[in-house]
Structures are given as C-alpha cells and as structure tokens.
Specification:
single chain, 463 residues, 17 helices, globular
Length: 463
C-alpha cells in the first residue's frame, strides 16, 4: 500500500538555497527560484507538520486499544505492504519524475512505463494468497488483511505513478493533498472507533487501505495532464535501464529501514514486534520525514544541476535532525509511559538507540536523492547496498542474541555506513569539500538567525 509519512515544520527549510534574500530585502521577488523553493518547502513541511500532529493524537489511541500484541499484528500487516510500492515500481516512478522535471511530455513517460508497473501489480495481486500465507505465520487476521492489501495494489501503483508526475511538474497542490488525506481520515475515524470500542487490527487496517485509495481523487487533474498517452519503445528501454539502477537503491534503502521489522514478523512475538514498531514510530516521527519533505521540493531543481543546493541541504538536514533528535530523546520516557501507556515503557531503550541512527539516515536520504536526480542512480544504489549488507549481516548475528535492541543497534550501523558512502559519492558529483556537507557555515547560521527573528516577529504581530 501507499506509505504516508508525517513530517514536521522546521525553520531550516526556509534557507535551503544559498543566496536567498531576506524577506523584504531589495531585489527579492516572489517569482525568484529561491523564493519559490523556500515557499514550497515550507508549505510541504507545514502540511506534514499537521500530519505529525495527527499521529501524536491517534497513535496513542491505537496503542491503548490494541496493546503491544495487537500493535504488533498491525505492524505485521503494514510492514510487508510497505515494501510493495518500491518492489513493484522497478524504479520507473523515479525515472518518470526526473524526465517530467526535465521537460518530457507526461503522456509519453506515463504511457510508455505505466503498463509495466500495472503488470507487476496485477501479478502480485494474483499470487496474494501465497504471499500472505508465507508472511502471516498462522495469524488469521494478518492473513486476511495482507490478501486485501495485495489485491488493491494495482490501483496503488497507478496512484504512485501520478504522484511522481505531479512532483516532476512541481504541481504541489495534489502532492500536499495526498499527504493530508490519510492522516485526516485517521483523525476523524480513529477516535470514533476508539470511543465505540471497535478499534481493532482489522478496522485499523481497513481504514488505512481506504484512505490510500482516496488519494486518486486529488490526482485526477494530474491524470488529465497526462492525456493523450503515447508509447515509445525507446522511452521504455531507457526508463527500464535507468529505473533498474534506482530500483536497486530504493529497495536497498527500504530494506535498510524495514528489514528488521520484516524479519521480526516471523522471528519474534507480536508483543516484541509491537514495542519495536512504536520505538521506530517515535524515533522517526520528527526526523526522517525532514529528508522526505525537503528532498521532494528540491528534487526537480537538483535534476537541473543545482549542486550547491544538494550540499547545503545535507548539512542543514544533519543540524535539524540532531536538534530534533535530542528533543525527542528528552521527551520519550514521558510520551511512551503517559501517551502510549505503561505497557509500552519497555520500548524506551530501542527508541533512544534508533534516534541516534535517524540523524545519518535523514542526511543520507538527501544525498541519495541528489545523486540520483543528478543522473547517477547507480551510486545511490551502491550506497544503499552498503547499508543493506551491514543490515543483513548484523541482523543475522544481533537479532537471535540481542532481540529488538540488537535490531536497533544494527540500524544505527547501517545508516552510518550508507551515509559515509553517499558523502563520498556526492563529493565526486556535486563537488565541494567534506565540510560543505557536514558543517554549518557562517551564511547558514546568519540565515537561520534571520529566519528565527522573522518567525518570532510574525508570532507577536499576529497577537
């Protein structure tokens, strides 16, 4: 199913491009590329900030209603389905996004490559009982919901392709609307289900599936912009070759992030998986989505050669992730015990460990995006493969002996290894020194200070 992520607003995103003129400065124009990028990024992060707030409100309700065992069963459903968008796309969505951003007519890109995505989606739907049976581990609710999610996947593949087109066109309204629909549905229905004592694993999964299907509505305009469709064999060949490189990197990235949970579906109890799922949710709630929001807004620009932007995004993401990670670490004991419930207090050690790993993970995601968008997806794939090798080898040793804590430690090692490789690759293609990717410079600090002053001034002016 379509994987939606909550992303918070951070002031750093208003300074993602060097040379941005302060508000009101002479020569600043509303139509300048820097101003547009800052506005788009700020709106994306503001939108995702509301999504994060919804998660804060509904996550504890789910945890209290389902308990560690039920929360583990829900993770056993959603984790395998989270692999499918990357698995079935074969990287073609990334190619469509890049080509549309570079001026390719959407109808040709979609008409040439969408049939492949749909064919894979229907093949997955056809064997859904076999896949669900292998993953459910004898749990009937997990089996039934996995079958339902797999049968719906062809429509999910179509929706994801349209989202890639909208991003390539920099048509941000449907993109933002798609990010808001699933959490809005949760905000409306999760409290209702909780208060009526009908919030179960089945109802939570069906709600997620239904919200994902609703994403088609704001994308109807994007679909009209793809008409008429056209097919070019050369486009298909080029897209498959390029997409395959992106696919290896995307699949490795997803495996780095979720292979631990996928293996835990079959190797640990539902209670342990539930605790680990909550730890992952809390650790990544405010940090990893920064890379998604900023990367989404900046991807088309990097495709057109904005190397300095890639360097700046990396160091700004490191800074923001470290600050937010420290804040979450301080609040985690109270959030776990009093928001999610005492039954989830045992998730604290895993949460603190995973918070360390989300800092290099967020910055590594930015660099993978920039290197791929710059025309070198093979290097991004190799970086993710480095992390995957660490993940597989580490889990083989740590999961049987250390359990959930071992899985968290392996994640930190894998994210760090992937980030180190991507810094080296980015330096090769985007230029600059290592410190340009790792250390805030004077201009960054001045810009952040100016942004903070403007934010405070606006706050008091509203009052």
């Amino acid at each position: 199913m379509i994987d939606t992520i909550a992303e918070p607003e951070v002031v750093a995103v208003e300074a993602v491009d060097r040379g941005a003129p302060p508000a009101g400065a002479e020569g600043a124009t509303k139509s300048s590329p820097t101003a547009r990028l800052s506005r788009v990024t700020a709106r994306l992060t503001l939108t995702n900030g509301s999504v994060a707030l919804v998660g804060i409100l509904t996550g504890p309700l789910q945890a209290r209603a389902l308990g560690p065992v039920g929360r583990g069963e829900l993770a056993a459903i959603m984790t395998p389905l989270g692999f499918l968008p990357t698995l079935a796309s074969v990287g073609l969505g990334t190619y469509v996004e890049r080509e549309v951003a570079r001026g390719r007519r959407p109808g040709v890109a979609v008409g040439s490559l969408l049939p492949v995505c749909l064919g894979i989606g229907f093949a997955i739907a056809a064997v859904s009982p076999l896949i669900a049976g292998a993953l459910a581990n004898g749990r009937p609710v997990v089996y039934a919901m996995l079958v339902l999610g797999l049968v719906l996947f062809p429509l999910s593949a179509f929706i994801l392709t349209l989202i890639n087109v909208a991003i390539g066109l920099e048509d941000w309204r449907p993109v933002m609307t798609c990010r808001v629909i699933p959490p809005t549905a949760q905000l409306i229905f999760i409290p209702v289900l909780f208060l009526t004592h009908t919030l179960t694993v089945t109802s939570a999964a069906i709600l997620s599936f239904g919200a994902s299907m609703m994403l088609l509505l704001p994308l109807l305009g994007t679909w009209r912009r793809c008409r008429p469709l056209g097919f070019e064999l050369a486009e298909l060949r080029t897209g498959v070759a390029y997409g395959a490189k992106c696919w290896v990197g995307g699949l490795s990235s997803l495996a780095n992030a979720r292979l631990d949970q996928l293996l835990m579906v079959a190797l640990v109890s539902s209670r342990v998986l539930g605790l680990y799922a909550i730890a992952v949710t809390l650790a990544t709630f405010f940090i990893s989505p920064i890379a998604s929001a900023v990367g989404t807004a900046a991807g088309p620009r990097v495709s057109r050669g904005a190397d300095d932007l890639a360097r700046r995004l990396c160091r700004m993401t490191l800074y923001a992730a470290a600050v937010l990670g420290l804040a979450v670490a301080v609040l985690s004991p109270f959030v776990l015990r009093y928001a999610f419930g005492p039954a989830f207090a045992d998730a604290l050690p895993m949460t603190l460990i995973l918070l360390v790993g989300t800092v290099p993970n967020a910055a590594g995601g930015i660099l993978s995006m920039s290197v791929s968008a710059g025309g070198h997806p093979g290097y991004a794939a190799r970086g993710e493969t480095v992390g995957l090798v660490v993940t597989v080898a580490g889990l083989a040793v740590a999961l049987p002996t250390l359990g959930d804590v071992g899985a968290a430690l392996v994640s930190v090692a894998a994210y760090t290894a992937q980030f180190a490789y991507m810094v080296r690759a980015a330096k090769r293609f985007h230029g600059g020194r290592y410190r340009d990717y790792l250390v805030l410079n004077t201009h960054d600090r001045q810009t952040l200070s100016a942004v903070l002053r403007r934010r405070v001034a606006r706050l008091f002016m509203r009052r």
